[in-house]
Amino acid sequence: MGELDLSILWQDLTKALFETGVMVSISLSLALLLGLPLGFGVYLTRKNMLWENRILNWLGGIGINLIRSLPFVILLILVLPLAQLITGRSTGPYAASVPLAIASIAFFARLVESALCEVSVGVVEAARAHGASDWLLIRKVLYPESLAGLMRGFTVTAISLIGYSAMAGVVGGGGIGFLAINYGYYRYETGVMIITVAILIVIVQIFQGFGDWIAHKLDHKK
Amino acid sequence: MLELKNISVRFRSKSRSVDAVKNVSIHVNRAEVFGIVGTSGAGKSTLLRTINLLERPSEGEIWIDGRNIASLQGEALRRERLNIGMVFQHFNLLHSQTISENIALPLHAARLASAAIQKRVSELLDLVDLNGMGKALPSQLSGGQKQRVGIARALANNPDVLLCDEPTSALDLETTESILNLLAEINRKLGVTIVIISHEMAVIKRICHRVAVMHDGVVVENKPVYDLFAHPEHAFTRELVEKSLDLRVPDRVLEEQQGEILRLVFLGARAEDPVLNETTHLFSVQINILHGRIEYIAGKPIGILLVSLQGTENNVKLATQFLQEHVARLEVIRHG
User: Which domains are present in chain B?
Assistant: First the structure.
């Protein structure tokens, strides 16, 4: 085990933190922007729902499952050409954000759907019986009633993303997870590895704690 | 006002189809409280839900105020539903929203301005006696209070028709009473036509003007509530009525009593005649009252007595004959 060079570690660490920040924030934003409507879409096209449509529901479900069943490393390599097309690069955190975004959109969409399934059918029925339009039902019933569940799903997505982003190192995405692998696994720098892992644990704890806190504030079924 | 014509509802699954409602026709007058009673699975809930098309009938017509709504879709259906309130067994309130927001939901559906919504919500809170509770969440309310919110929500847009799907079945006895009082008062004060379904005759007895009895998807009897209790015709109705007017006496009492044991039913003015007194005098028999009660249904009395009759065999026979002629119904529970 070599002597710990704190200044090099510090440099690598800030760079890695930045890269993780880029990957997580880009893909989380896209998960929210696209995964949320996708989850609503899959839910609303279910049987007996507002926009019941077997074909669309099936397509949405299959699409989500396809992405979710692929091991992330394989997805990473599969969408490399797409990443290059979008970002103009095939390495780096921006390129790695493309597969991460795809995975997190599918992941979050499924969690959105299951949060919506928790909304009582009776409440939806009451709103329909009293003349609520589809949009009113989404805005005033489905969204607020599932908000706590949506928040929990979002937290889980964010945390999984931190884990996935470590694998983004395969395409040179960098990030703090990759730093841990690099130092600990390839260079046997156990000290650095422990520090980076500790930082990862703290980050995950902060995400989880914050998510739980908000979800708890939103949850009125207590 | 409200007319269901030849309504059938068929549920289809891959393997079989079930007829939940079979060719039912019902007419409900304006400002009437109309009850639909039956055991669970009789199709009464399905029938009720066709009125606002939560369930689409496979066949038949639904006329409200001279319009057939059975084929309405989309925006036209949405508008029609603003005119039909609905109260649910399990209240179906939004957990995440305040009482005021819950009540405001149909007002948002009617696209009222927010000032108008606020004003109407406070009127409704007043109507259901929940003043000052507007900011509370449903989880802070008792069952009875939740149902009051449900009723306020259902009345938000001043509907002509109020559908009540087992509105008291999730409530205790006392709360049931107060909710039924509220519904009766709303019917009286606002002239709202109410269709209420229940499996409890006590609920029907308490507030309905007319009743339809449903059994196995079919309406087997349909008449004013007093007539239903006084002259139940169909075997199923008779069973329901008997159960609700049942007089239970401990077995020990029956065993210790000698002579005939009779169950007598008196109706209307007859309930006030001194028939028993006359019988003892005319036939020198002893009459012992074991149990009895008088029910007032729609303001008219129905009296039920359980009596034992003692005397010589011939006198008992003549007395029984005499009673048979002077009471509405006589049933021999046990021969002496």
Answer: 2-243 (3.40.50.300), 251-334 (3.30.70.260)
- What ipTM describes this predicted complex? 0.85
Q: Does B202 touch chain A (CB under 8 A)?
A: no
What's the CATH code of the domain at A25? 1.10.3720.10
pLDDT reading at A1 higher than 60: no
Looking at the domain assignment, is residue A1 inside a domain?
A: no
Determine contact: B96 vs chain A, CB below 8 A: yes
Task: Determine whether the interchain pair B109/A136 forms a contact, defined as Cβ–Cβ distance below 8 Å.
Answer: yes
Residue A194 falls within a domain, yes or no? yes
Give the range of the structural domain holding residue A125, as residue numbers without chain letter: 6-218
- Percent over 90 (pLDDT), chain B: 66
Cβ of B95 within 8 Å of Cβ of A140? The answer is no
Considering the domain boundaries, does residue A86 fall inside one?
Answer: yes
What is the model's pTM? 0.87
Confidence of residue A222 (pLDDT cuts 50, 70, 90): very low
Reduce the secondary structure of chain B to three states and give it as a string.
CEEEEEEEEEEECCCCEEEEEEEEEEEECCCCEEEEECCCCCCHHHHHHHHCCCCCCCEEEEEECCEECCCCCHHHHHHHHCCEEEECCCCCCCCCCCHHHHHHHHHHHCCCCHHHHHHHHHHHHHHCCCCCCCCCCHHHCCHHHHHHHHHHHHCCCCCCEEEEECCCCCCCHHHHHHHHHHHHHHHHHHCCEEEEEECCHHHHHHHCCEEEEEECCEEEEEEEHHHHHHCCCCHHHHHHHHHHCCCCCCHHHHHHCCCEEEEEEEEHHHHHCCHHHHHHHHHCCEEEEEEEEEEEECCEEEEEEEEEEECCHHHHHHHHHHHHHHCCEEEEEECC
Q: How many separate domains does chain A show?
A: 1
Which chain A residues contact residue B78 at CB under 8 A? 131-133
Residue A6 pLDDT class (50, 70, 90 cuts): low
Any domain includes A152: yes
